[in-house]
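Batch job 17 of 40 flagged for manual review because the log was empty.
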Amino acid sequence: MTTNTPPKIIQAWVNSIGRATPAQMSSFYCKEAILLATYATLLRGRREIYSYFVDFLNKKNMKCRIVKNFTQQCGRDCQVASGIYEFTFDDADGSQSVVARYSYVVKGNRIINHHSSEDPDV
């Protein structure tokens, strides 16, 4: 079954991006999670994910919104969410926008795998 509603933890991740600390953001992930981030090499585990968010969250007025989402149920406690999200923030050049593709694998109530890359169609 596929729905357009993101898993609750993904919506919480999106809602928290502009106000959370690296510790709060990394808490969405399981201890052994893998993050293939847009601007980083493969990150493994909460410690590396935490370090990524130290830099990633260091932007003024950072916001994120889901543009399009498809969630597939993969068993009782596993979901795969794929879609498009947009990040906006301010820097020395003014207001910036980055549209990216994403895939999340959620097991239980934690992210176990997360891939994000800039959308080549934008």
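Reviewer: the log was empty due to a logging misconfiguration, but the result itself is present. The chain has a mean pLDDT of 94. Unflagging and moving on to job 18.
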